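Regression test case RT-17, inverse folding.

Input:
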């Protein structure tokens, strides 16, 4: 099998028996057509269809090294600058399709798997009870690539008591851990947060946190493995869906791009050794992303996506300010300038990361980490300003937003007359303002803001790691030299 089409993605999902708890309902299949998920699932299917569209397929796919069949570009191991550019163009194409709103498209974790597999020798250091972890990660990457599987991941302990470590939550019982091993593999019990798209993914990656550090006492909790999403004993506790089944006109984003988030429960899930990549090794867990460069390639995808999202915000705020004739006011220009500077900062950081790319110890051409890490630290805060700016500039117009039923119903004439704007007729203006509303006021938009703040880990602790890893010696030396000057 090669890069999937939308219908192939949907067919596999329809056959899967994923256990999802959602709004009091227990699903053991049928996720693809459930009202909570069917719209976003179809948005994902469109992305898979793009892989076969003559307009996009040369960017979105490359020939599999195993079969020569086209496979997704996110699996491409970059060796040349052209490879890196191709990867970024593929990320951007998919991100543009959802205006950057879909955060967990397959390219995010496929990038991680590509980097992890290329570092198979590093995994080979692990001498746990399973044989050949390096082989395991390489074979698993090849399987996901050839079958074009969609992965979700779960990294952090349940949020019970952050004053103690994950392994101490609930006396040690809460966080997913290995309860026993048998001849064939491990048995995992407990829970983890928080798997976005968990309910409709094909595979769950149970990986270490990108930010939290394991200590030697955390052996049982220190592992990495992959589990088919409908494995026995695995269940997802999904949050309330924010796609309310409303028309596209009324909820233009929520009706398309509402990615579910779910707590993952492991009720004695058996994981065969060939699906284990690290077992009982806190040190390997702590080096998992940095040593393999996985975090760099994941962030490369993220910054391409956040660039697409910021381009969307700039287009949206520009149409809004033109529509109601507020462009000439200086504070409005200052707000628009803020969006532009964020966009240009992201573009520059992305470009710098590619320009300064260098091979890592496994021969993978790896974007420079400092610019990507800077973008990763900045965006969680910068994004919060966008809904604030849109709310401020949209003002009461964001409440003058009748539904499609109103626009086409008895109020149509009033809407056309009284909701017209400087550049738009009433119905057109309502359509634009509903999009602004879904970007800055709706429940969907609230979840987007939370997502941008936290999806890569706690920005506060990311900043701590950023400071600890940044070479400040030249700056300190320069200041000390100045202090000693006559
Ligand atoms: C919408 C959304 C989608 C997500 N998707 C995924 C996903 O797909 N996969 C996945 O694995 N995870 C996902 N996450 C989880 C994400 O990784 C976490 O939200 C993030 O790591 C922060 O952890 P937490 O939510 O447990 O916050 P907590 O750690 O509970 O923090 C709560 C508050 O306390 C502060 N705090 C807590 N402990 C400390 C400390 N030691 N030092 C300083 N401050 C502290 C934090 O700064 C924060 O303000 C998602 C989160 C969100 C919100």
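Golden output:
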């Amino acid at each position: 099998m090669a890069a999937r089409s939308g219908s192939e993605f949907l067919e596999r999902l329809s056959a899967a028996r994923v256990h999802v708890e959602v709004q009091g309902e227990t699903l053991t299949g049928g996720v693809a057509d459930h009202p909570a998920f069917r719209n976003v699932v179809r948005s994902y299917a469109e992305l898979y269809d793009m892989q076969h569209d003559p307009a996009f397929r040369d960017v979105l796919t490359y020939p599999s090294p195993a079969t020569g069949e086209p496979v997704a570009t996110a699996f491409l191991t970059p060796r040349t600058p052209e490879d890196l550019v191709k990867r970024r163009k593929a990320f951007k194409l998919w991100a543009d399709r959802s205006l950057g709103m879909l955060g967990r498209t397959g390219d995010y974790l496929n990038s991680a798997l590509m980097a992890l597999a290329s570092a198979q020798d590093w995994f080979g250091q692990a001498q746990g009870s399973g044989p050949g972890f390096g082989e395991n990660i390489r074979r698993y990457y090849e399987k996901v690539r050839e079958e074009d599987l969609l992965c979700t991941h779960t990294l952090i302990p349940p949020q019970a008591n952050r004053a103690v470590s994950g392994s101490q939550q609930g006396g040690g019982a809460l966080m997913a851990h290995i309860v026993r091993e048998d001849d064939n593999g491990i048995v995992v019990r407990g829970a983890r947060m928080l798997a976005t798209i968990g309910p409709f993914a094909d595979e769950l990656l149970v990986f270490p946190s990108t930010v939290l550090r394991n200590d030697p006492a955390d052996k049982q909790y220190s592992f990495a493995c992959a589990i088919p999403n409908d494995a026995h004993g695995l269940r997802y506790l999904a949050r309330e869906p924010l796609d309310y089944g409303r028309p596209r006109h009324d909820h233009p984003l929520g009706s398309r791009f509402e990615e579910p988030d779910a707590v993952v429960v492991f009720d004695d899930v058996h994981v065969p050794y060939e699906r284990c990549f690290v077992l009982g090794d806190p040190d390997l867990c702590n080096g998992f992303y940095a040593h393999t460069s996985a975090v760099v390639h994941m962030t490369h995808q993220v910054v391409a996506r956040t660039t697409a999202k910021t381009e969307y915000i700039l287009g949206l705020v520009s149409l809004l300010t033109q529509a109601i004739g507020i462009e000439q006011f200086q504070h409005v220009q200052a707000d628009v300038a803020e969006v532009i500077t964020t966009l240009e900062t992201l573009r520059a950081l992305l470009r710098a990361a590619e320009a300064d790319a260098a091979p890592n110890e496994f021969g993978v051409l790896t974007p420079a980490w400092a610019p990507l890490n800077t973008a990763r630290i900045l965006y969680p805060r910068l994004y919060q300003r966008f809904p604030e700016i849109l709310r401020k500039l949209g003002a009461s117009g964001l409440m003058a937003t009748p539904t499609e039923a109103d626009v086409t119903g008895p109020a149509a004439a009033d809407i056309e007359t009284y909701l017209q704007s400087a550049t738009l007729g009433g119905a057109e203006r309502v359509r634009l303002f509903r999009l602004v509303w879904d970007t800055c006021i709706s429940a969907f938009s609230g979840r987007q803001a939370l997502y941008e703040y936290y999806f890569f880990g706690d920005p506060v602790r990311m900043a701590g790691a950023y400071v600890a890893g940044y070479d400040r010696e030249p700056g300190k030396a320069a200041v000390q030299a100045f202090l000693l000057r006559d």
